Amino acid sequence: MRIMENRNPTALDVGIDRIGVYVPEYVLPLDQLAAARQVPVEKIHVGIGSYKMAVAPPWEDTVTLGANAAARLFAQGDVRPEEIGLLLVATETAVDHAKPASIFLHELLGVPSNCRTFELKHACYSGTAGVMIAADWIRSGAARGRKALVVATDIARYDLHSSAEFTQGAGAVALVVSEQPRLLRLDPISGVFASNVYDFWRPLDRREALVDGKFSLDCYLNALDRAVADFRASLNGQGGEPLPPRFAALIYHTPFPKMAYKAHLRLFENEWRRAGGDPGELAAAAERSYTEQVEPTLGAARIVGNTYTASLYLCLAWLAEQRGRELEGRSLGLFSYGSGCCAEFFTGQLVDGSASIAPRIGLEQMLQARRELSVEEYEAFARGAAGDLSDAQASFCRFAGVRDDKRLYERTGALA
Ligand code: HMG
To answer: Where are the beta strands (DSSP E) in 269-341?
Structure first.
């Protein structure tokens, strides 16, 4: 009995074929929150690097955010739900302890019934876990020509009045992973680091995350060092020269933009010292490298905030949309970090032709179309009150409430 078509996807020709992004239609300018909390605005704009944060209204959750991102991906054309053979939903804002968000998306999106689907959790890392599982599924031949849909979707919530409050956000990124990808070809080699740390967590009975803020920064930077060391080891001696110059851009998990700055300085300094660079020139070279290779990735993160599992891919979407033409054919370095912790450093190339596809993501346009909330409206949303905005519509689907302890979702628009 023939159980598999005789396909042999080369290890090098698998990657991200399409990206769809969705952020809630509400946004809070952080200068208003800083004024309300009596925090100097420079601390937020300069110290944290953020200007606005996306706020999910009570009628949106990670299912609706994720389904809306996937609907925007399918609306770009070229990929249809019938082509999906693996549907993975990565989130740390689960809607149920047992029933996965993925099965709601499976129904809402009309994905075939012979599609393997499940939810993934490892804090912010699980979006990358999904991408790696999907890429390996395709490389193995088990996909039989089908594509994987990986959806990273989250709402970053901390306690009101906490220092982490300014690093909230919400959004989702949907990624199609396939053979002969039309956006980003993924290299099969990566570097991984895992270690049990309590830097950020959310006990089962809590809606808002708990965090040991300063410690979490150390854990992130240590994981970066170790994942990059593992990446170097996997190059089998072929990787003597410094890493940053090999890439047109470096994209970091971005809980807040200053974290990406700290991460890049750490990576750059390690690589500079390794190569025996002049210590007197290090600071200027690192700043130059940050400006050229990292700053262009941060435009959306500065006005969306932390999207946890989706954060790295929101930065990728922004970079591809804004700089696609000049970066076509060039390599990117990507660092994914999930508290707890697990991290991965991996690489890929923006394929020829990707610049004509990336503008279809429509990220900038969506960000500009958002409605600004007052601090009072934001606090009402945080308490779960819909106020006089309750008749607002999500574009594709919305959360329709709980009946008999069951969550209900309804489609509010066509798929494409
Ligand atoms: P904080 O106590 O509010 O702030 O905590 P701070 O005192 O550390 O100040 C922040 C920066 O602002 C500092 O800059 C200050 O100097 C500066 P730095 O020294 O770090 O370069 N500053 C000013 N700058 C200009 N003018 C001023 C001024 N005042 C101070 N007047 C913290 C900040 C990030 C810790 C907090 O917001 C927090 O706990 N956030 C949540 C945790 C987090 O995002 N951790 C990141 C690493 S872990 C991670 O990425 C995983 C995560 O995404 C979850 C997951 O994996 O699922 C979180």
So the answer is: 331-338
Residue 55: partners with Cβ closer than 8 Å, 6 or more residues away: 24, 26, 27, 28, 168, 170, 373, 378, 381
Residues near ligand 1 (Cβ within 6 A)? 40, 42-43, 46-48, 92, 123-124, 163-164, 166-167, 199-200, 211, 213-214, 216-217, 220, 253, 255-256, 258-259, 306, 308, 337-339
Which two three-digit tokens encode residue 66? 């994720």
Asked if 73 and 19 touch (Cβ cutoff 8 Å), the reply is yes
pTM of the model: 0.96
Q: Which of 44, 48, 126 to mutate to test the pocket of ligand 1 (most atoms within 8 A of CB)?
A: 48
* First vs last C-alpha separation in the chain: 38
Q: Give the single-character DSSP code of 183.
A: S
Higher pLDDT: 94 or 413? It is 94
List strand residue ranges (DSSP E) for 180-289, in order.
184-194, 200-201, 210-211, 249-252
> How far is Cα 150 from Cα 176, in angstroms, rounded to an integer?
6
- The pLDDT tens digits for 338-355 are 999 999 999 999 999 999
Atom of ligand 1 nearest to the CA of 125: 56
Question: What size, in residues, is the chain?
Answer: 416
Residues marked as catalytic: 92, 124, 253
384 by Cβ neighbours in 10 Å (0-12 / 13-18 / 19+) ranks as exposed
Q: Residue 206's CB: how many other CB atoms inside 10 A?
A: 11
